[in-house]
Amino acid sequence: MGDKNDLTRRLEFLRIDENVKKSMWDFFATINGDVPAIVENFYAHLSGFQETQSIIDKHSDVRTLTDAQRQHWENMFSGDYADAYMERALTVGRVHDVIGLEPRWYLGGYFMLIEQMLQTYLRKNGVKNAKVMDGVGAMLRSVCLDIDLAMMTYIESGELRKIREQLLQMSDEILDESDQTIQSVSDQTALMQENVDNLSEAQIELQKQVDFATESLNHTLNSIQTVAAATEELDASSQSIAGQVQSSEEIAQNAIEQSRRSQETVNSLETSAQEIASVVALVQNIASQTRLLALNATIEAARAGEAGKGFAVVAQEVKNLAAETEKAIDQVNMQSGQIREATERAVHEIEITNQLIQKMGESVGHISEAVEQQTAATTEISSSATSASDSTSHVDESMKDVSERNVSAQSVARKVSNISRNVIRDVSGLRGAMTMLLRTSYAGNRRHSERVPLGMTVTLKQNGTECVGTTADLSLGGVSLRIDHAQDRLKTGACHIVLDKLGAFDMDIRQVADNVVNAAFGAHTDGEKARIVQLLEETKNHDKTYIALVQEAANRTEEAFETALRKNQIAFEDFFDIDYQPIANTNPRQMLTKFTAITDEYLPDIQEDIVQRAPNIVFCAAVDRAAYLPTHNKVYMKEQSDDPVWNDANCRNRRIFADPAGLRAARNTQPVLVQAYDRKVGDQVVLLKEVDAPVYIRGRHWGNVRMAYKF
Predict the structure, then answer these.
(1) d(CA 671, CA 691)
(2) How many DSSP H helices and E strands does the chain contain?
(3) Which domain holds residue 472?
(4) Peptide bond before 582: cis, by omega within 30 degrees of 0?
(5) Based on the domain organization, do 352 and 406 belong to the same domain?
(6) Are 498 and 363 in a shared domain?
(7) What Cα–Cα distance (Å) separates residue 368 from each residue in 230, 378, 381?
(8) Would you list the DSSP string of 574-626?
(9) Do 609 and 701 meet the contact criterion of CB atoms below 8 Å apart?
């Protein structure tokens, strides 16, 4: 502003040269004596207007102001436009800004001073004609008004332009910041989702392990109980065996004693057998001697002849008896030998038996000790089995508790997973929502032409990728499109678009968010511009029917609310109740307010009538400023079921629809708002056109009537 080159250009344009500077000083010299009076008249005039009076009142010494003003004019007419002058001039402008002196008052005051200075100059140079004086004054006032209006428009436009540029920059920065924040939230939510998925998998695996452990514990418990029972039986058997072993030990001791006695008896028998053998030997010897005697007797009897026959008979009998005796003795001797051999064998067997009985006694002793140890071990096993059974029961209860907690954890994990998925979904939609809100606002709208919602088929090609979608709105500056999975398929930059009713265009994609694509036209040919303008006008003419209907619905809604107030059915402030009370066991969540009963009573007849009055109307319903929709069309007011998806499509009353279109509709204060509406129903998104008309209750904005219809 203070650049010398800039000042030089200003002086050149205003044709202020040295001659002009001399003339300026001559002019001031002529009127110098009258300047104080002119300045006093100037301040007197300012005092008559409220806008300038407050500024003068801040200065207690008007004389000081007058002297400063006279000095200012003297400096200005001196022709000295050096740095000091420039600084004074700029300071005056800054002071005006500080004290709030608008340019119109500044210009008006200056022109008043100039008018009086000119009239004084003319009068002192011989001009006495009052008509000439009035003409000069009229001309200056007219020029001042024209300059005032032109400067006001220029300044306001410039200020608006600067503000708009600043707001555009702010909106871009907000979008950039939101992009970074949303991306960060998305990344963190995705990480949380991944961790939740891992947790779910771990919990599923844990549940399997818990189930397996529970089953194993059941088997173990059964086995332990079986072992405990068997151990009890074993303990009883051990006790019985211990008794029997003790009896066996006693029997073994008795057997040893009996064996000892038997051995003694056998030993006696062996002695007797030996004695018998001695007797038999003696008898055998006697028999041999007797036989010998009998032989001798026979011989002697033979010698005696007849006299010896009787003796021979006796001798023969003695011989026979001796033979029989020898024979018997041989038999007895043989039997005695057998007895002796048997006795010897018996002695040997008894010795072996005695040894075995001794060993058996030792073994029984060992068995007795082992049985005692087994009994003690069995008792300990039984006690341990009982303890293990109790511990296993506690572990089983703990595993059941772990299983229940794991089931609860899985439920929580599923809820967290659902929440994280919803966060991812909502965050993904937030970028598009913010973009739409900013770009459709006055401050953030980069289009300098009107947006008109309309739908037509579009084919978009970019870098070998071809997408088919539909338009959401159109202007001379660009088009907003809806293309499925656009964010994954397209990027900002050049593209080729074929619009069904307009033809082909080379365009530039400025923004891609979720399924929203905003693209800008290049320079239009006259033919292209004419086709676009014609289509926009046709669309607006088509919308007039629906605009009239929604405005009628808004008027009838206002009348219905007024009727309810007159009947004292509701207090005025209750219409603006924002304490939305959730209805239990509803999904999606439904809510009640103090005015819900009134809208349920009055609005159905109005809304159902409007829906039937034009083709393709999907719904007509009133919402408050928070986008709360208390009473919907009957087709969307069914009782909720256990299916949230079905509920979302069929139970849309008593809910808040705070999506971008819903909020724009709810807060609209223009006579009508026409917009594209991405209506989400369950998992489906349907693109509709929407017209909204505001509803006022005794001059206070309550909300809007929303009416949506197919393109």
Answers:
(1) 10
(2) 14, 15
(3) 452-522
(4) no
(5) yes
(6) no
(7) 21, 15, 19
(8) GGG---PEEPTT-SS--EE-TTHHHHHHHHHHHHHHHHTTSTTEEEEEEEETT
(9) no
- For the chain, what is the mean pLDDT? 79
Pairing verdict, β 591-592 and 700-709:
unpaired
* Residues 380 and 514 reside in one and the same domain: no
Amino acid (one-letter) located at 185: V
* pLDDT per residue as tens digits for the range 114-136: 888 888 888 888 888 888 888 88
Residue with tokens 């026409």: 674
Secondary structure of residue 177 in the 3-state scheme = helix
CA 501 to mean position of chain CA atoms:
43
- State mean pLDDT over 168-182: 61
- Helix locations, 444-505, DSSP H: 486-489
Which residue type sits at 380?
A: E
Between the ranges 254-258, 386-390, 453-457, 594-598, where is the mean pLDDT highest? 594-598
List the CATH number of the domain containing 30: 1.10.490.10
573 and 629 inside one domain: yes
Residue 149 within a domain:
no
Domain count of the chain? 4
**Residue at token pair 């340019």:** 103
Q: Same domain for 624 and 670?
A: yes
Instruction: Look at residues 128, 158, 180 and tell me which one is the last residue of a structural domain.
Output: 128
Backbone angles phi, psi at 438, to 5 degrees: -70, -45
User: Distance (Å, rounded) from C-alpha 480 to C-alpha 210?
Assistant: 55
Do residues 448 and 477 lie in contact, with contact meaning Cβ atoms separated by under 8 Å? yes
CATH number at residue 638: 3.30.450.20
Burial of 200 (0-12, 13-18, 19+ CB in 10 A): middle
Please write the tens of the pLDDT for every residue from 483-512: 998 989 999 999 999 999 899 999 999 989
The answer as to whether 445 is a domain residue is: no
Please report the pLDDT score of residue 657 as a whole number: 93
C-alpha span between 705 and 609 (Å, rounded)? 14
In this predicted model, what pLDDT tens digit does every residue of 650-670 receive, in sequence order? 999 999 998 888 999 999 999
pTM, to two decimals: 0.49
134/123 Cα distance (integer angstroms):
12
**Domain shared by 390 and 463, yes or no:** no
Rounded CA-CA distance 562/558 in Å is 6
Tally of CB atoms within 10 A around 469? 18
- Give the model's confidence band at 429: pLDDT under 50 very low, under 70 low, under 90 confident, else very high: low
Tokens (6 digits) for 159 = 């200020």
- How far is 470 from 482, CA to CA, in rounded Å? 5
